[in-house]
Write a structure and sequence with these properties.
By secondary structure, this protein is mainly β. The protein has one domain: Lipocalin, CATH 2.40.128. The protein is built from one helix and 26 strands. The chain has one helix at 3-18, and strands at residues 32-34, 40-43, 48-50, 57-58, 67-69, 75-82, 88-94, 101-111, 116-121, 126-131, 137-140, 155-159, 164-168, 181-183, 189-192, 201-206, 213-217, 225-230, 240-244, 246-251, 258-262, 265-269, 276-281, 293-299, 305-313, 318-326. The strands form five sheets. Strands 4, 5, 6, 7, 8, 9, 10 and 11 form an eight-stranded antiparallel beta sheet that branches. The protein has a six-stranded mixed beta sheet with strand order 1-2-23-22-21-20, with no helix packed on it. A hairpin with a 5-residue loop joins strand 14 and strand 15. The longest helix is centred in the N-terminal third of the chain and has 16 residues, at 3-18.
Length: 329
């Protein structure tokens, strides 16, 4: 048996161990406290699946997007860098399953339909479409390698409404950064995209109708950031709802809820009455003060599930964890 085959067997064993049992982060329990600026805050922890085993996936070479939901909300793709052999693969998980499936080497999973997705292929470096039914792939956007900035490309996001690619050239950071250049599926440049962050705005998410936005304000050097709800353009005039170590914000597709991260906790905000519920608290073997934090929150299209990407600092590197919270039946 060759080295590569041994490596694949070890990785496969890790996959089975990491997802062998549906892990419940915590069951329902309620505790009451009072918010200084909003209404009552409750704790109602929800069942969740832990898709990655502890210390198995490195985060140093992550790129956005890390996860992608299928349009029917029945499956999730995520990118994982094996901490031992340092190889970047895409993984598939069907909601409710007790194991994940390794698919192909690459990054930036982007579902385009329930059976197909786009991703950044590792070798040769290119944008490819993978068919989950036939297990075949084809290259797309063939003009992209002709761009002067092709070597600087770190990732892309697929826009299903426009059927275009939003290209990004920034490294992975604590807060999501949207693409800055747009290209069609042939790789033709369509022009610059407007920035959604910057100028004190660290993260932003709009309601489905575009009438309101949830933003995290602050700077990268401080430990205190502010969560606000406002009409577009009025972010700096709005009242602060939460002020703490905030890491991500995501408005649910049904428009009813704003999810946000506070260190290693995930909370839900009702944008109308400002009530807050803590739904997940990712405390591992170490204490909660070990510096771990949630940096990405991604809703399923039907608003029933919420994927959370957590980074866990260790002595030599930082590991990635993927959880899926069950928000509804």
């Amino acid at each position: 048996m060759g080295y590569e085959q041994i490596q694949e067997r070890i990785e496969s064993m890790k996959i089975r161990i990491g997802i062998a049992v549906v892990v419940v982060i915590a069951l329902a329990g309620v505790a009451w406290v009072v918010l200084g600026r909003g209404g009552a805050e409750t704790t109602r922890l929800v069942p969740a699946w832990q898709l990655t085993s502890d210390g198995s996936y490195d985060s140093s070479a992550l790129v956005d997007p890390v996860v992608s939901w299928s349009p029917d909300s029945k499956a999730l793709l995520f990118a994982g860098i094996g901490a031992k052999f340092y190889q970047n693969y895409l993984y598939y998980w069907k909601v409710g399953d007790t194991r994940i499936t390794r698919l192909v080497a690459g990054s930036c999973p982007n579902y385009t339909s329930n059976s197909k997705f786009l991703y950044l292929k590792s070798n040769p470096r290119s944008v490819a479409e993978y068919d989950l039914v036939t297990k075949r792939e084809r290259l797309v956007a063939p003009q992209l390698p002709k761009w002067d900035l092709w070597r600087e490309l770190t990732g892309f996001s697929y826009d299903p409404a426009r059927k275009t690619l939003a290209l990004r050239f920034a490294k992975f950071s604590r807060y999501y950064e949207s693409g800055v250049e747009e290209a069609d599926l042939t790789g033709k440049c369509l022009g610059r995209l407007p920035r959604t962050t910057g100028g004190g705005v660290l993260d932003r998410s709009s309601d489905p109708k575009g009438n309101r936005v949830a933003v995290i304000l602050g700077d990268l050097t401080g430990d205190v950031r502010q969560l606000r709800i406002a009409r577009p353009g009025d972010e700096f005039k709005a009242e602060t709802i939460v002020e703490n170590d905030l890491g991500a914000v995501a408005w649910s597709p049904d428009g009813k809820t704003v999810a946000f991260a506070e260190a290693d906790e995930v909370k839900l905000l009702n944008p109308d009455d400002r009530s807050i519920v803590t739904v997940a608290r990712f405390v591992g073997r170490k204490a909660a003060s070990d510096g771990r934090y949630v940096c990405r929150l991604v809703w399923s299209p039907n608003s029933k599930y919420l994927a959370a990407v957590e980074l866990v600092p260790a002595e030599e590197n930082t590991f990635m964890m993927i959880y899926v919270l069950r928000m509804g039946r």
